[in-house]
Amino acid sequence: MRQGHDGFPDDLVEGGPQHPSPAGGWWSTAYERMRRFSGRRPWLLDGALAAATGAVSLGIGVGDSTGLYRDFDGPAWALTCLATLTLVGRRRAPVTVLLLFCAIWAGYITLGYHPVVNSSGALLALYTVAAARPAGPTVASASVPALVWLYGGLLDRQGSLLAALTQSLVWPAVVCYLGSAARRLNERGQQLAALTEELRRDRQELARRAVSDERLRIARDLHDVVAHHLSVVSVQAGLAWYVLSTDPPAARSALRTVRDTVGEALTEMRGMLGVLRPGQPEITDSPTPEQPAPGLARVDDLLSRIRAAGVPVRTVVTGVPRDLPPGPDLCAFRFLQEALTNVLNHSGGATTVTLDHQPDQFVATVADEGPRHRSRRLPRPAGTGGGRGLIGMVERARQYGGTVRVEQDEHGFTVRLTLPTSPPPPSPESHAARR
């Protein structure tokens, strides 16, 4: 585990998960500035902290006037500065710095100087070890300054051996606890950072999936609109060309149907593409009351276009009709549109559309009776090869928990859509009957 630039874990400096800074006022600002500075100038910060520790040690040594220890002379200055200098590298090699510092400290005590002078530096080096190493190496390293402390108490004839023993046990234990707590906090911060990154990637993946699903939905809608309307246009244009010289009124009627179908297709496509181009009222306007949004309310218009193309269509409605939710309503309309377009492209025979409103589901069935029942032969639309219409119907129904089944016999095809629905609310008459 990497260690912070000032001896603290990396979560307190640059490069690790950042914990919240103290809240409020100048202290929060100062903390943030110090953290940024430590990331840009690590060695300068380490040197400043070592110099501060050395200043404390020198102040204790110079200010000692008890006369119980050797005077703070030149060698004392040199040893104290040398020990302080080792603290600059404590972040790079914490255990080595602790051992080297304690060796200099022990030599300092052996020469008869005040043993407390360099104790603050030893505690700082021990904290660095506890903040950067597991519990086992930390406990082993803590025994070194504790022994030096006890060694100073044994040489101090004026002091209490019990007090030296207590200090050699208590202070290293407290420092190890604080350093280990900082290390555990840093590890939890790193785990939290990893989880945060994973959640960020999951959100991005969900966003990509949502975009992909939306593109797929728009592609299906465009397929349904283009395939249906162009099929009608192709049939009507072929009919107009076929009867242009022999039956001009029929040709004009076919061309009128082409014009209306193209206009309706453009309106629907502008509405769908408005989702991709927000902020343009001329594109994103809601459907007018005269032309509602695609749904079962527009089934009559759909059937009229199919009948105008020369396909006889019969409608059967069973059960109690009721409005479906917007999603299933659009799904049912697109199903009928795609199924009738397939009849127009591949069969053209008499077709029965059944809309069955059951209490817990809605079933739409499109059954054609094959080409041999066509009232007259119409020009076949161009480009009516195999497509992905059935796959699109299945996927669209699956979004709402529904199914699509296709059956074929010697007469033709039957395509059936089943969508689960909520049961209708009980009528007042049923309430009265129960009472």
UniProtKB/TrEMBL annotation:
Signal transduction histidine kinase subgroup 3 dimerisation and phosphoacceptor domain: residues covered: 214-280
Domain Histidine kinase/HSP90-like ATPase residues, every copy: 334-421
InterPro entries for the chain: DUF7134, HATPase_C_sf, HATPase_dom, Sensor_HK_TwoCompSys, Sig_transdc_His_kin_sub3_dim/P
Stretches that traverse the bilayer: 43-62, 74-90, 97-116, 159-178
Key words, A-Z: ATP-binding, Kinase, Membrane, Nucleotide-binding, Phosphoprotein, Transferase, Transmembrane, Transmembrane helix, Two-component regulatory system
Enzyme Commission code: 2.7.13.3
Reactions this protein catalyses: ATP + protein L-histidine = ADP + protein N-phospho-L-histidine
Domain of life: Bacteria
Renumbered residue ranges of the record's region Disordered: 1-25, 368-390
Every DUF7134 domain range: 35-135
A Pfam family that the UniProt record links to this protein: HisKA_3
PANTHER family noted in UniProt: NITRATE/NITRITE SENSOR PROTEIN NARX-RELATED, NITRATE_NITRITE SENSOR PROTEIN NARQ
The protein's name in its UniProt record: histidine kinase
Species, as recorded: Micromonospora lutea
